[in-house]
Request: fold
Amino acid sequence: MIRLPLVLVFAALLFSAGVYGVLARRNAVMVLMAIELMLNAVNLNLVAFSASLKDVSGQIFALFVIAVAAAEVGIGLAIVILLFRNRASINVDEVDLLKW
Amino acid sequence: MVGVLHILAQETGGVDAAAKAPNWFMTHAYIIPMLCVASAVLTLAFGKRTPGRGSIYGIAALVVGLVLALGCLVGIAQGSGVATDGVHWFTIGGFSVDAGYYVDGLAATMLVVVTGVSLMVHLYAMGYMHGDKRYTWFYFVLSLFTAAMLVVVLAPNLFELLVGWEVMGVCSYLLIGHWYEEHVNSSAAIKAFITTRIGDVPFMFGIFACIVIAGGTTSNIQAIGQAVGVSHDTVLVTAAALLLFGGTIGKSAQFPLHVWLPDAMAGPTPVSALIHAATMVAAGVYLVGRMFEVFVTASPEVLTIVGTIGAITMLGAAILAMVQDDIKRVLAYSTLSQLAYMVAGLSMGETGYSAAFFHLFTHAFFKGLLFLAAGSLIHAVHSNNMSDMGGLRSKMPVTFVTMLIGSLALAGFPLIGGFWSKDELLVTASTGHMWLFVMFLVTAIATAFYTGRMLFLTFYGPYRGHAEPHESPGIMTGPLVILAGATIVAGFLGSPFTHYVFADWVHFGEPEVHSFHGAIAAICSVAALGGLALGWLLYGPKRDRAVDPIERGIGPVWGVLQHRYYIDDFYFNGIVRPIRDTVSAGVYWFNQNVLDGAVNGATVVARGGSGVIMWIDRTIIDGAVNGTGTLMESLGKALRRVQSGKVQWYAVGLFAGVIVLSLFVFNR
Reply:
């Protein structure tokens, strides 16, 4: 059995990679993928604590998160497609009309 | 009525050694002034909203008041003693004052006079004052005036008396100046007020002297009377009597303070009737009667002074009444003269007491009647002057008959009104007061003469006026008829036909025994008839009226009389003008230098202060307000840069915030 701290460190790295992607990538699709990374890092934590504490509710939370993430990606990609149709670009830096 | 009183007098049989207990009316006499005060308040509060504009309250109160007053008089006629009671009013140190009532024969007869005459005046004024713009106000003051006089009549102590006395002064001022739009009327009101105030100053000190005599603990009139009886300080008692008489001189308009009364004719005629007959001037004489113990105990010179002043006023005023053209002024001087009769009567001491007040009693009715009748004439011809009247006999029959009765009563025509009271005064004077007897007789002739002159100038000969004369309405002639009846009845109360019942009611010490003196009655009748005949001779219908016969006869003296012996001119030029001019000059200087200086100084200060305040306002307050605005604007300008529209910058902020919060939470 893999020791818990190893899993947590891995999950933290994964989360950090996700944060970096969300903040630094220009491509909207890549930003969405980075969000998926962050969600899955959280899922990893939930499952790891569930196994360690012998409590099944963590795994059930993970299943809910997966379901919500699927819906989120669906909506997100639809927005990206509409954006591309309107602006012929999916660069998030160019989508800055909602300001003062 | 005469018959009833006659029987009443026989039943009571004059002297009654053991006085009966006072009846209900006497022990509740205080209700009468309270009713009048209540009616005054109601008139003021609801008068204008009441149908008839508020005259009903005063009339209703006086109808009840007259019944209660007659009840008191019945009690006196049945031989009751004195009814007096009171509640504690206030205490200053050891000096305490009650509020209460004191009803004896004098007070009871005065109650009847005041309520009766005042009721007639109230009724009469409904016609005379009809349509006046201050009608409701007039009735308010009229009721208050009556209430004040009733307070004076019922007062058991000098302080309560003073309250009524002064309220009456204010009311007379308000009533004389009722038509104050005319300057003459308002100055007459001021003159009346100030002149009576001059008399009030010695009166106040007289009250203080009486309180000192009574030991400084009470102002009760009975207590003062007893204290005077045992006092050895003749000087103090004499001073008290003289000072109190000062009040009488002012209020009853005796020489030398008589000047206000003829000018008081500026008021509406019902007011003149009330002032001259029932209230105000009677109060002065009443005061002497109330405080008579002081007068008879004081040194005899006091009564001599009183008699001298009475004698001077009596004849001086009667002579002036002969030369007046204004009918109200004839009656005003007549009032002066008749009041002097009473004052002189009182100066004869205990024996004159009853006779003097009998004259006050009869005079109240016939003088009230004469004034109201004169008002009826004035109402008809729209002029006060007898030179605008004449020949009104057939045009105004009711006024003529009633005024004839009043005039005969004034002149002392046998068997009518004033004849009996003058007769009594002459009877009293004939024993030991010969010089007063002569004065009384001469004045009686003069009185009959000017009364005749007045009658013949108004009712006989051709009509000389311009208005269309007509008889007055019933509301005015009704009171005239009632007062004419009262005049005749009142006269008989002091006649041998009723065994001089009035003297049993009103007396000082033991009731005097009166008997009929045929010789003096004959002298009286001759004086009255002689005066009237002289009037007929000079002013009868066949005479030429272009020039007054007296003016033709006496030449330059006419001018002196028209100027009222120059007394008014002397007061005005010798006293009023110097004081007034000095005071007004002083006030002008004070106004120019002190008041204007203060006003201008205040302006400078205010302008300087306003400059400072303006600077503070502009700089500090406006600066703060504008500064806040500017600060917010620049802050907003700076902060709006944060909202870049770039989603990832927002996410940076979000994560930075999470990190900061985490550090904050975990480092605790």
User: Anything to note?
Assistant: The first strand of chain B starts at residue 83 and ends at 92. The CA atoms of residues 646 and 652 of chain B lie 10 Å apart. The two ends of chain B are 116 Å apart (CA to CA). Chain B touches chain A at residues 640, 643-648, 651-652, 655 (CB under 8 Å).
